[in-house]
Each structure stands twice: as C-alpha cells, then as structure tokens.
Amino acid sequence: MDAETTPRHYDNPVIPGFHPDPSVCRVGEDYYLVCSSFEYFPGVPLFHSRDLVRWRQIGNVLDRPSQLPLPPDASASDGIYAPTIRHHDGRFWMITTNVSQGGNFIVSAERPEGPWSDPVWIDLPGIDPDLAWDSDGNCWCAFQGVQVARVDPEAGKVLEGPFPAWSGTGLQWPEAPHLYRIREWWYLMIAEGGTERGHTVAMARARSPRGPWEAAPSNPILTHRGTDHPVQSTGHADLVTTPDGEWWMVLLATRPRGYSPGFHVMGRETFLTPVRWQDGWPVVGPVNLRERAPGRPLPVEEVPRRDDFDAPLLDPRWISPRSRPDEFWSLTARPGWLALRASGSTLDRPGCTFIGRRQEHPASRTAVLLDPGSGRAGLSIRMDEAHHYDLEVADGQVGVIARIGPLRQRLALRSVPPGPVTLVITTGPAGERPPAEGTPTGLHVAAPDFIAFHVDGERFAELDGRYLSTEVATGFTGRVIGMYATAGTAWFDWFEHSPLEGPGAPMTE
Ligand code: 6LW
Predict the structure, then answer these.
(1) The domain boundary residue, chosen from 292, 322, 343
(2) Which of 174, 45, 34, 39 is nearest to 99 (CA)?
(3) What is the mean pLDDT of residues 31-57?
(4) Is 148 in the pocket of ligand 1 (CB under 6 A)?
(5) How confident is the model at residue 26, as a pLDDT?
(6) Of 158, 202, 468, 503, which sits with the fewest C-beta atoms within 10 Å of its C-beta?
(7) Whose Cα sits closest to atom 5 in ligand 1?
(8) Is the peptide bond before 42 cis (omega within 30 degrees of 0)?
(9) What pLDDT digit, counting tens, does each position of 352-364 carry?
(10) For 167-186, how does the pLDDT look when each residue is reduced to its tens digit (9 = 90+)?
C-alpha cells in the first residue's frame, strides 16, 4: 500500500493477537513499539511504523538466550512482563521485568534492529518499570506501586529513592506507570483497576518527578468498564506525538465474545486512539474498532502472510514456549522446509519442540504442508500446556486431540496416505451454527468462536473455542498456533495464517 492509497480510517486493534502492554517511542518519522512476551522465546516483539497504524515486526529485543534466562519449567504467563521503550541521546533503551528469574533489567542498542545489549540488572522491586530523562540528564524510573527512583541506566544503579509517587484513585493494582516531561509539567500516567474488565487509565502531574502529585480532575481519563462496548479492558497505555504535534495513545484492550461472561481468545491486543488536550489534561476515548487515521501517511511494506521457509533465518514472528534450542530445528537440513526434531514427547508439558505464531484474526485460517516422516507431528492451537487442540499425524493416521485442564481426549481419527499432508485449522464466529456436541440447547451462541480441523481439504472435526480463552485458561497471553514434533523429525514446507473473510482470504484449501 502506498501513500496515495492510505485509508483515511483504520481498524483497531492496530497490532492484533496477543500483544499486550504496548510501549511506543518516535525517532524522527519512525515509530517503534514493544509488547510483553511472557514465557515465549524470543521475547519483547519490536515493531516499526511510519504512520502509527500499519506496524511491521522488525525483530525481538530479547533474541539471545543470554538476554532471557527462563527456568525450563517456568509457568505460563511468567517470564517477561510489560516493557518500556525510549530513545535518548542517540540510543534506544528498553526496560522490563523477568518475573521468573532476575527481576528488572535494562537493555540498550544503537539501532532498533539490534544488536541489543545483554541485560543490565537493576535492584528495584515490582513490575512495569519505565524510563524518563530530565533536562539535566537524570534518568527516572517509575514502577508498579507506584514508586519512583533516580537511576543510572548504564550501570543499573539506584541513585535516589525509590520513594512513593501518586498511586491512583484507590483502585486495585496501580501499575504500568509512564512519566512524561511536557512543557513545565511532569505527567504520570498509570493503569489501575486490574487488567480485566475494570481496567482504567489515570493521570497526575507535578513540577518534578519527586512530586507532589496533583490528580487529574477527569480521572479515570479512559475506561470502558461497565459498558457494552465491543472493546473492553482498555488500559496500560503509552503516549506519543507525531512530527506535526498530534497526540496519540497506544493501549491494550480485549475483544470478548460469546455468552456471559464473554471470552477473549486472542489475549490483550494493541489499540491506537487519538488524544486531545483540554485544560492541561489529556482527553481520550472511547477506543473504537474503527477510527480516523492520523495525518501524514507514509508508504510502508506489506507484511507477507505465508512463510515458505526459504529464507536463511526464521521470521521474527515465530515464537516457542521458554526456549528454542538450535539442535531441535533447522532451515537447512532440507532446503525450503522447516525441520523440527522432537525434544519432548507431549505438548502437555514444557520442553516440547513447538514453533508458532500468535493468532491474529478472529476468523482465521492457518494451513501447513507437513511431511511427518515416521514421527509424530502436527499443528496445534494453544493457550498453554493445559489448554490446546492439536491436529496430529502419526502412524498413517490423523487425529484431533483436545487438552482442557486435567482432561485429554482424542476426538477423531482417520487414515492418511503416506507423504506430505495439508493440515488446516480455522477459527470462526459462533453465528447461527447448530449446537456443538455437548453444548446445552439454547446456548449454542455461548462460544466466542468455533475451531475446525481440516485435512487435505476435508473438514472433519470442530470444537468450541471457549476452552482456549483467557477466561478458561487464565493468565496474560492469548492463542498461539504452531507446528510441533513429539516423536522423530518432521518437515514443514510452508505455513500460512490469514483472515478467513474480507480481502485476501484464500479461496481454496
Ligand atoms: C503487566 C501489568 C498488566 O505487567 O498486566 O495490564 C501485567 N497490565 O501492567 C502483565 O501483562
């Protein structure tokens, strides 16, 4: 898409799929954005945009095991929490928390593409750290609580504090602080109310990062709590200005669907919304699924939907739970194919060879061409080790396995001829479908979506999607769809993840 065809409106979320806790900075006409990644490796996806609307993942800030130590059995939703990205004095800085090992740390880089430094650990408690510089070059770190400290980001030393700052209006979990120096004020923006439906954004200001803080009379400056808006859980926000001086906010929100209490299946996603100022405070929201685009659109590259595994390196969108040891995957063993060698024998426990991508479209189609060899391999859609559906090939048969909490069941089995097989998983709205087996009559619209399994063009099983939702699995992540091997070595020729409806939807299986 070029500048001439840039839409005057844009669709939210601007970064769909589980991309929570967005933080953004601008350098000239380029915007950079990072998100939380939890137990997945590589960690902290890094996006680039020139118009705040169309984002392309250009890497992962934490792409070496030395930057992301994780115990092999780290729990789902542990690992890397909310990052902050800033550019100061010609350098990019990213601060975050590894809640599984080591706590708060900072990495920096000259160029956003990296290389990013090894972690500089900093002895501060809590999560959600932020970095901001004053005009004397002092660096201030605010974090959950909310507290503020003066730090040396290069040495990882605390120079002053931490001391209590403004902690919101009294709701639970005052967190996600960001400090901004705007004209003669310091603004402190936080999230409170918890990251679920009660999520809010609140603000205070002071003449110095040491306070005293004055709360915005309009707090919360943003919330969707208690509304029937299709976008829910709005919070954990960051602010950015365009070169023309427009203000915008990135934030996380969810898109719950299905019968009460509603289920969100793609985790918390990154939304964009305009900000205006009135009487010295930002005015923002509601955050809509369709918004008016920012000015000054610039050309960007289209992001390919299909990976043919012809490139020498894995695309940065590919992630694996906890680690991705080199000896268990290869792009060169069989050129043009991704080879996966089994490291563990089940997806029900950490340590299995799995390479996947976040589900990015509510109605989606994910297809692979798999040569299972003499092993056991397939395509899985997962929340975590205890919540996943697998389309699996082994011993000349293909089957669907559902793991939901402590229960594991094989649902369908049929033969497949030897050699490569096309596996497809689709997700789609509940709509007016007949009740899925086992669904109480009258509640067939209860599901947020249905997940269907197809082999070589034939749809042969379908399951209710609610069991792969945050409301069932709990935690901070969302669905990931990926390739795996649990015995022997398997080869994948290509992988495609696309929206099922609208422009670009594939016409054939
Ligand atoms: C994050 C906290 C939150 O650290 O969820 O939505 C936690 N907000 O700020 C995990 O993403």
Answers:
(1) 292
(2) 39
(3) 96
(4) no
(5) 98
(6) 503
(7) 195
(8) yes
(9) 999 999 999 999 9
(10) 999 999 999 999 999 999 99
Give SS3 for 352: coil
Catalytic residues: 21, 175
Q: What is the 3-state secondary structure (H, E, C) of 126-186?
A: CCCCCCEECCCCCEEEEECCCEEEEEECCCCEEEEEEEECCCCCCCCCCEEEEEEEECCEE
Does any domain span residue 350?
yes
Q: What angle do CA 97, 131, 210 make, to 5 degrees?
A: 115
Which of 100, 200, 476 has the most ligand 1 atoms within 8 A of CB, as the residue to mutate? 476
> Does ligand 1 lie within 6 Å of residue 483's CB atom?
no
CA distance linking residue 165 with residue 423, whole number of Å: 53
Nearest CA to ligand 1 atom 1: 82
68 and 202 fall within a common domain: yes
The token pair at 195 is 């990251």
Question: Which residues constitute the domain of residue 21?
Answer: 3-292
Q: Are residues 492 and 412 in the same domain?
A: yes
Q: Based on the fold, state whether residues 153 and 252 are members of the same structural domain.
A: yes
31: CATH = 2.115.10.20
Spatial separation of the C-alpha atoms in residues 161 and 142, rounded to whole Å = 11
Interval 252-272: pLDDT, tens: 999 999 989 999 999 999 999
Asked if residue 256 and residue 314 are part of one domain, the reply reads: no
In angstroms, how far is CA 457 from the centroid of its own chain?
30
- pLDDT interval class at 506 (50, 70, 90): very low
User: For residue 31, how many other CB atoms are within 10 A of its CB?
Assistant: 21
Q: Residue 439 above 70 pLDDT?
A: no
Q: Specify whether 8 is located in the same domain as 136.
A: yes
pLDDT given for residue 504 in this prediction: 40
Residues 278 and 326 placed together within one structural domain of the fold = no
Distance 268 CA to ligand 1 centre (A): 10
Residue 272 has a pLDDT of 97
Q: How far is CA 429 from the centre of its chain?
A: 21
Q: Which 3 state secondary structure label does DSSP give 257? A: strand
